[in-house]
Design goal:
- It is a single chain.
- A 6-stranded antiparallel beta sheet has the order 1-5-6-4-3-2, with helices on one face.
- It has 2 domains: 17-34 and 41-155, Phosphorylase Kinase, domain 1 (2-Layer Sandwich); 163-350, Transferase(Phosphotransferase), domain 1, CATH 1.10.510.
- Helix 5 (175-193) packs antiparallel against helix 7 (256-272).
- It is built from 11 helices and 10 strands.
- The protein is α+β, with helices and mostly antiparallel strands.
- 30% of the residues lie in helices and 15% in strands.
């Protein structure tokens, strides 16, 4: 990837398409410098739409990448039912008609007017972050295609669906499931936060955490994510009931500790099968923003939680972001005592920082 930043997305003609199976790269990711993660000057839509289409940042052909890396090469596929909604696009089940492999595809239109240039930039950012992530607790990237004015991002089809859908169907989680889900989310976040530059997810909630048939946890939807040398942002993104106070107040920016607050909210969501602040807590959006961003309140912590989990959640929901623990601190919390050995390999992998 060139040092000046990610390659803009390109729109192909309606009769053509490009596919890519993306290999790992040792090149340094583009970074934001200065006091915040505010983006550089936004390119015009013509910059995006007139850039020649490419299969990968290195210019290597998709077939060569497939042979080297063993990634799924998808050339012929059919779209199925809608299974989710991401930050910048809808997610569908899909079938590789050559191999019979089921996968998920996130589709988002690439528009050709100046009003949508920020939207296109967000899609480009999501692809540039997601394509290099490799971890057991992150949904796997399989490739992408630009066709008929749409970006299609191919990823693993995680059969169990989201944690929010699971608690909506089966009710609140037991202590055992809460422990397993929390540890899986922490391992995924530790991997993101330990990158160089760090990646802040910025939209952790039950709907963005998937689970397979063996209850293995996978983080997904990087449409709101940001990577930056100074992991502080001044943009209000994410889902309001899970947002950290500093995300709303915008006083000093926010970084990785905002994900820690959202993690605490997600644990409450899984423990109660309700939104973090409780059903009917907010009459309208403005009241929610004021209560979360400007009051001294925190979401109520269920009293029937194990005491060690209550303490963990309470530490996540400290309104002073600097006082919140890191993912590294939380992985070795007492709540996981006696349960970490089985995840030792994943933990070691999660704690190894790598440069994008």
């Amino acid at each position: 990837m060139p040092p000046h930043g990610p390659r803009p997305l390109a729109r192909t003609s309606s009769s053509s398409s490009r596919t890519g199976c993306i290999r790992r790269s040792n090149s340094t990711a583009s970074v934001c410098r200065g006091d915040s993660c505010k983006s550089k000057a936004t390119p015009t839509s013509s910059d995006y739409l007139n850039t020649p289409s490419t299969t990968a940042s290195s210019g290597t052909s998709a077939s060569q990448l497939d042979a080297k890396d063993g990634l799924l090469r998808i050339t012929e596929w059919r779209i199925g039912s809608k299974i989710g909604q991401g930050s910048y696009g809808s997610v569908y089940k899909a079938l590789d008609t050559t191999t019979g492999t089921l996968f998920a595809v996130k589709k988002a239109a690439i528009q050709a007017n100046d009003e949508d240039k920020t939207y296109v930039e967000k899609l480009s950012d999501e692809l540039e972050i997601f394509r290099y992530l490799r971890h057991p607790n992150i949904v796997s990237f399989l490739g992408y295609e630009i066709k008929d004015g749409e970006l299609c991002i191919f990823m693993d089809f995680v059969r169990g669906g989201s944690l929010s859908a699971m608690v909506a169907e089966f009710g609140a989680f037991s202590s055992k499931l809460l422990r397993q889900a929390t540890l899986g989310m922490l391992q995924g976040l530790e991997y993101l936060h330990s990158h160089s530059p760090p990646i802040v997810h910025r939209d952790i909630k039950g709907a963005n955490v998937l689970v397979d048939k063996d209850f293995a946890i996978r983080l997904t939807d990087f449409g709101c994510s940001k990577r930056c040398d100074v992991s502080t942002s001044f943009t209000t993104v994410g889902s309001i009931p899970w947002m950290a106070p500093e995300v709303i107040s915008q006083q000093n920016g926010y970084g990785r500790k905002a994900d820690i607050w959202s993690l605490g909210c997600t644990i409450i969501e899984l423990a109660t099968a309700e939104t973090p602040w409780g059903k009917g807590a907010f009459d309208n959006i403005m009241f929610a923003l004021k209560r979360i961003g400007l009051s001294e309140e925190v979401p109520p912590i269920p009293e029937d939680m194990p005491s060690s989990l209550q303490q963990l959640v309470r530490s996540c929901l400290t309104r002073n972001a600097d006082a919140r623990p890191t993912t590294s601190d939380l992985i070795y919390h007492d709540f996981f005592l006696g349960h970490i050995c089985g995840s030792a390999t994943a933990l070691r992998r999660a704690r190894q920082p790598r440069r994008l």
